Amino acid sequence: MAIIVNLDVMMAKRKISSGELAEKIGITQANLSILKTGKAKAIRFSTLDSICSALDCQPGDILEFIADEV
Fold it and tell me: What is the value of pTM for the model shown?
């Protein structure tokens, strides 16, 4: 099972920088980078809510599930 984080794609579509998004949602650029690279083990719903609000998108625009091949 793999969850793919497409945050960088959505940020590019909305033409917003990491610094600007981090400031809007109230997290550090370092934590935003961890989310963008898919290295995060978890994300708070409040953070996801803030990201979706700032980018005017749905959670499914940012997170994608890809099943492992057997």
Answer: 0.88
